[in-house]
Design goal:
heterodimer; A: about 260 residues; alpha/beta; Rossmann fold; nine-stranded mixed β-sheet; two-stranded antiparallel sheet; 7 helices; about 30% helix; globular; B: about 1000 residues; alpha+beta; seven-stranded mixed β-sheet
Chain lengths: ~260, ~1000
């Protein structure tokens, strides 16, 4: 199959959309940045694409909480189209602000009763926005994006509201048992961070950095795998492996889009 | 107007965390409160406040509270009608049943706390409220008329009096310039909906005597002197009519120091004798031409595409693209309102880069504050505490860069008592654009079009405000000078401009900065003239007089010249991105600047008169009578008073230097900035095994870049040198900026620099002497390194007039910022050591001295050591070029320059970065402290693998380059100097340096 078309959704304040395009391009997709207004006007249609990215940034300046208004946009204008896209099994990835949008729009974790929110992304434990490199481990086999990665990933994080919170232990158990915990923060040596700062940079419960829906085609994560897709010559071999793992994640998504 | 609707108050509080382990954000504020002397403050919790005016059903209120304003999983939201005694019980938690048993304790805890609330003053830009309005409509809550936001603070502490709470509100929680506060619940306030005003005031300037002229200048805070006022009077005598308020304000702004650089272009009479006078003619006519531009002209680098002409300097990048770079200061606004001042400083410099049709790719920030531990009694009257200034400024930088999606990748933080009343905030931005696509071809008939934000009273008279000396009433009087940024609005404008550039829709572009439309339209129309009508300008709120609209420094606006037949296409791009576009009028071709309000002429000025500028200023420069320090500034000598009598051991000194405010890790601040967005950051501010080794410069490979070519950004700054010797400060700052660039692989023949001076009152002859010396240093260093200046900016009157008449000015401060071309991003070494068993070399001629050094700040100048500021290193230009060849050949594994704290400090930082040990012998046969900690120009330490050593030495032949040791896996830095040897463990280095890895 030719390069699958990927839609990278842009709202006012989205800023890592071109970064996602670089990663998608390297991974074999044909990405296009599409403004929410273009979808609303019918100039572009979600069904014409095989992969959806909700990229990072500060949509609507984070007013009223990160991702809240972008999520409202999705729910108000495109609820059916997005639901259909997800149900069709096409790959979806929400990164950082995009993860917040997916959670606040109720698309992740993708189960629950009566619209009650079971998980959210709250202010970082230390109350600050923080940008640093993190190590990610991929324990799940459910998620199409993180399946059989070659090893841990190295990604920068850049967020102030990335602490993954659940309403109750039962939700966490449910996520675990369904293989929905797609990515967890690890330490330099590739072991789970165990809540230790700065390996777990924001105080997320169970070191959760990313989750997927029960079907595994929708991944939301706080760190930025799109910002580590080019091997840096000055890095040692171990670090290069972790860069290749980021690219492998993108390839997984793109390959899945091709298979559908 | 009668208001028949209700106002509801929503308060959103973070839920108590299970186990109550940390109340986030509580502790830093409480620590700040204790630093103010309120020792009984235990904790401060913050909550968000929203006031909503309108007609809403209970269900709609619930929707707003539970869905829009709060996240029920982690926040509690309650609401009530303003004016009702008790909170609306119906609004109490309940319908989702999700609240656990912690609520009672919660309530108890909050009852005990004291409450202080703040809200924005009506009319201050409130982006949160704007988004809330839009979202409410999207949710289907149609009855919302207005929203405003605020903050509540729950203060825990025993026996806090109302006086103490007021102090806390005034000094810490609220900034009266943009906010109101109350102990207890605050009353909401709304912008005054007064009727529109076309009011124009007229001054009979032609008839005024000198005294009346000066009185008018002072009354309207125009900062014009008598000669300038007299020139204006002459104009109106010739025109034979009165001067309108809008005209007067336009002239004051166009002729301000900020806009025309009167000091740099002044005629300077040099009054000095003997050796001091030798380098100068009796009169220096125009410093900018005589020193800064002259260096650029003499170097005549073919890759400099634009210097001192456009909003930013421009250099060639990779054959297809050009890079632009600009650094500005936003000192005065940041002193009054740190967050807004720094925020709009970043926004403003990003617009400079947008103003050369570029896409912003990186931001830089160099910040100078008073000591964070200053006791409140020692501070200048009415100035904010340095902690408060620092946290506000840093938050402002963070907010704008992060939200614009521009990585903040290089900078610095410097502390000195001289910055307590006058903090310095240098903001920089680099951009990239296709080559030759920036048009400068506006023609008569083109439309005058404004893109972006709406106009309010924000920042009126900012250009003239920044040209004045501050005093204890400045904060109060200049409240209107503070702008508030809306980075997302600017991001949209930036996106629209790039599309418009690629489609060739405009013939010229410039940003609305200081002076607002007056400056932007005025400059663009300088040769053509323009005819515009301000009644078309979209306003944030009604009631603005024409001169206010014309001069407003409302942010996030760009002015473009658009041929009439391209306007529709531009409109369609803008509407697709939700960018507001306003057609104000046309470029006329008759060289008159005509501004109307609803047809009535409020300005009609001859462009020739306006842009010929004010009469040249005459100033005097003379060296201080008693020593080299700036004459204005005897109170704040380098802090030698804290110098210890007894010299420490070398190991102790090394740890103390690593922990010194000039050296210690800035990681905790740097990590607040997104330095990775855009995915171009090849080398960030910190790198190495644990990402905590400080780097000399940032390296970016923009996504447009062809092949491996990249760009470096670095800076040189040392105010301690400035206080002791401004000439050598300039020489050292330029050498450091270039040295830092070379360390990361930039080609020394492809580095350009910017100069940013911050000094006191230029009418003080000693201040002018400082400037003269520094400018000469700039020329000498730039020509020696063959590094051209491409842009610069100067900021004067960074002085504070204390109530007792004492003038306190900043230490002479010169920032040199460098942009360099790195031919191969793959060869960037970084400062962190890479492998054990490698060789360490010292490149360059080390001439250690102690004037302004970190060591001297701690312990004084050691007996027998050189007491001066480091001099120029004549061998450096050759050494840097040789080293560059070695780096480009891939022979260098790590490279770090010697700066604050000397050789031992550089080695310690390299070990720390790579978590590797090293053994090294400091060169020199004399003084141990000089060899280890003396500061010098022109030197770097490099790590070279054994196998590459022969080739490295061959390339460095003829350059002073000596092998000083090797790396090892031993976990400590072992140093030998003279007859002394010592070792320090890596862990101790890390703790002293204080990165975030040692934080919990």
């Amino acid at each position: 199959m030719r390069r699958p078309k990927a839609i990278v959704l842009h709202a006012a304040g989205t800023n890592r959309d071109p970064d996602a395009c670089v990663a998608l391009g390297l991974a074999g997709a044909d990405p296009e940045i599409v403004h929410v207004n273009q979808l609303r006007s019918g100039e572009r249609r979600l069904t014409d694409y095989r992969l959806l990215v909700i990229p990072g940034g500060f949509s609507y300046a984070d007013a009223l909480g990160a991702g809240r208004i972008f999520a409202l946009d999705l729910a108000s204008y495109f609820a059916d189209e997005v639901a259909e896209f997800v149900a069709s099994g096409k790959p979806v990835i929400g990164i950082c602000n995009g993860f917040q949008v997916l959670v606040k729009a109720g698309i992740l974790p993708g189960f629950g009763i009566g619209g009650r929110r079971l998980a959210t992304l709250a202010r970082n434990d230390n109350g600050r926005f923080e940008c640093r490199w993190s190590t990610l481990l991929a324990p799940s086999s459910t998620c199409v994006w993180t399946r059989s990665l070659p090893g841990p990933l190295a990604c920068p994080i850049a967020h102030g509201e990335g602490r993954f919170v659940v309403d109750a232990e039962a939700t966490l158990e449910k996520l675990r048992s369904a293989g929905q915990i797609a990515l967890v923060y690890g330490d330099d040596d590739g072991r789970p961070a165990n809540g230790e700062y700065p390996a777990n940079p924001n105080g997320s419960v169970a070191d959760v950095a990313g989750i997927c829906n029960p079907a595994g085609n929708v991944l939301g994560l706080m760190p930025h795998p799109e910002n580590n897709v080019v091997v840096r010559a000055r890095d040692g071999e171990a670090r290069r492996e972790r860069t290749r793992a980021c690219l492998a994640l993108w390839r997984n998504g793109v390959e899945h889009a091709k298979e559908l | 107007m009668e208001v028949t609707t209700d106002v509801y108050r929503f308060i959103v509080r973070p839920k108590e965390r299970p186990g109550g382990r940390r109340r986030h954000e509580a502790c830093p504020l409480a620590a700040d409160a204790r630093a103010l002397g309120l020792s009984s403050v235990r904790a401060i919790e913050r909550a968000a406040l929203y006031f909503v005016r309108g007609t809403m059903a209970p269900k709609e209120l619930c929707l707003l509270g539970r869905f829009l304003f709060s996240d029920p999983l982690v926040e509690d939201c309650s609401w009530s009608r303003v004016g009702d005694e008790e909170p609306d019980e119906a609004a109490a938690p309940g319908d989702d049943g999700g609240d656990d048993g912690g609520d009672d304790g919660d309530a108890m805890r909050r009852v005990e706390a004291h409450l202080v609330e703040t809200a924005l003053r009506p009319g201050v830009t409130d982006p949160v409220a704007d988004e809330a309005m839009r979202a409410a409509a999207e949710l289907g809550v149609a009855g919302v008329e207005a929203v405003s936001s605020g903050e509540a603070f729950f203060i825990h502490g025993d026996g806090l009096s109302d006086e103490e709470l007021s102090l806390l509100a005034e000094r810490l929680l609220c900034n009266a310039v943009i906010q109101r506060w109350a102990v207890g619940a605050i009353e909401p306030a709304w912008p005054d909906e007064a009727a529109g005003s076309g009011a124009v005031e007229r001054f009979e300037l032609a008839a005024m005597d000198d005294e009346a002229l000066l009185a008018l200048s002072a009354e309207r805070r125009a900062a014009l002197d008598l000669a300038e006022m007299a020139a204006i009077r002459g104009y109106y005598r010739r025109e034979g009519r009165a001067c309108t308020d809008a005209e007067f304000e336009t002239i004051a702004q166009t002729w301000s120091e900020h806009c025309v650089h009167k000091t740099f272009k002044a005629r300077i009479e040099v009054r000095a004798d003997g050796e001091a006078a030798a380098p100068y003619p009796p009169v220096v006519d125009n410093l900018l031409k005589s020193y800064i531009k002259r260096a650029t002209d003499e170097i005549a680098a073919p890759w400099v595409l634009s210097a001192f002409v456009d909003n930013a300097g421009v250099i060639e990048f990779d054959g297809k693209h050009e890079l632009s770079f600009k650094v500005e200061t936003h000192n005065h606004p940041s002193a009054v309102e740190p967050f807004g001042g720094a925020n709009t400083g970043v926004g403003g410099v990003i617009r400079d880069v947008m103003g050369v049709s570029a896409r912003p790719i990186a931001a830089t920030d160099v910040l100078c504050f008073g000591p964070p531990d200053a006791s409140p009694e020692d501070l200048p009257v009415a100035s904010l505490h340095p902690r408060r200034v620092a946290s506000g400024v840093i938050a402002g930088v963070q907010d704008y860069g992060n939200k614009m999606g521009v990585p903040t990748v290089n900078g610095g933080i410097h502390y000195d008592p001289g910055y307590a009343a006058n903090p310095l905030v240098y903001c920089g931005c680099a951009g990239i654009a296709p080559r030759g696509r920036h048009p400068r071809s506006q023609a008569a008939g083109d439309r005058v079009v404004v893109l972006g934000g709406r106009t309010g009273r924000d920042g009126l008279r900012g250009a003239t405000f920044s040209s004045m000396v501050m005093d204890s009433s400045t904060g109060e009087l200049s409240g209107a000078s503070v702008q508030i940024g809306a980075p997302i609005v600017q991001k949209k404008v930036s996106e629209a401009l790039v599309l418009a550039r690629d489609a060739g829709l405009y013939t010229a572009v410039t940003d609305c900065g200081a002076g607002g439309l007056s400056s932007a339209v005025g400059e663009m129309a300088a040769e053509l003239g323009a005819d515009v009508d301000l009644a078309h300008a979209p306003l944030k709120y009604p009631g603005l007089a024409p001169w206010e609209i014309w001069l407003s420094e409302a942010q996030e606006r760009m002015v473009v010249a658009v041929p009439p037949d391209r306007l529709d296409e531009l409109r369609s791009i803008c509407s697709g991105l939700d960018v507001e576009l306003t057609d104000l009028g046309r470029f006329s071709g008759d060289r008159r600047l005509v501004v109307r309000y609803d047809g009535a002429v409020v300005i009609d000025l001859d462009c020739g008169f306006l842009h010929a500028g004010p009469p040249q200023r005459s100033l005097v420069a003379s060296p201080p009578k008693d020593g080299p320090a700036d004459g204005e500034r005897k109170a704040a000598e380098p802090t030698a008073s804290v110098a210890r009598a007894t010299a420490p051991s070398s190991g102790e000194a090394l740890l103390a230097i690593l922990a010194h405010p000039a050296v210690r890790s800035r990681e905790a601040t740097v990590r607040l900035y997104d330095h990775e967005v855009q995915g171009a950051t090849m080398l960030g501010p910190y790198a190495g095994l644990k990402a905590d080794g400080p780097q000399d410069a940032a390296v970016l490979r923009p996504r447009e870049s062809r092949g491996q070519v990249a760009v470096s950004l670095s800076n040189g700054f040392n105010h301690r040198y400035g206080a002791a010797d401004p000439y050598r400060m300039a020489v050292s700052a330029l050498d450091e900026a270039v040295r830092n660039a070379v360390a990361v692989g930039a080609d020394p023949d492809r580095i350009a620099v910017l100069d940013n001076f911050c000094l006191g009152d230029p009418t003080v002859p000693e201040t002018m002497w400082t400037l003269l010396e520094a400018a000469r240093g700039c020329y000498d260093a730039a020509t020696a390194h063959r590094t051209p200046f491409i842009s610069g900016k100067d900021s004067f009157n960074n002085a504070y007039l204390a109530p007792d008449g004492r003038r306190v000015s900043v230490p002479p401060s010169l920032l040199i910022s460098a942009i360099g071309i790195v031919p191969d991003a793959g060869a960037v070494p970084g400062s962190d050591l890479k492998a054990p068993g490698d060789r360490l070399y010292l490149v360059g001629t080390m001439e250690p001295s102690f004037g302004g050094s970190v060591y001297a700040d701690l312990y004084g100048v050691p007996d027998g050591a050189a007491p001066g500021v480091p001099a120029a290193s004549p061998g450096a230009p050759m050494a840097y070029r040789a080293l560059h060849r070695a780096i480009a050949a891939g022979l260098v594994r790590a490279c770090h320059d010697l700066s604050d704290g000397g050789l031992a400090t550089a080695l310690a930082e390299m070990c720390l970065g790579g978590r590797l040990g090293a053994k090294a012998t400091a060169p020199g046969d004399g003084l141990v402290a000089a060899a280890l900690f003396g500061e010098t120009n022109g030197c770097l330490v490099v790590e070279v693998a054994d196998t590459a050593a022969a080739e490295f030495e061959r390339i460095m032949a003829g350059i002073e380059c000596r092998r000083i040791g090797e790396t090892d896996g031993g976990g400590r830095l072992e140093l030998v100097a003279g007859d002394e040897g010592f070792a320090v463990a890596l862990d101790d280095l890390a703790v002293a340096f204080g990165g975030t890895r040692s934080e919990r």
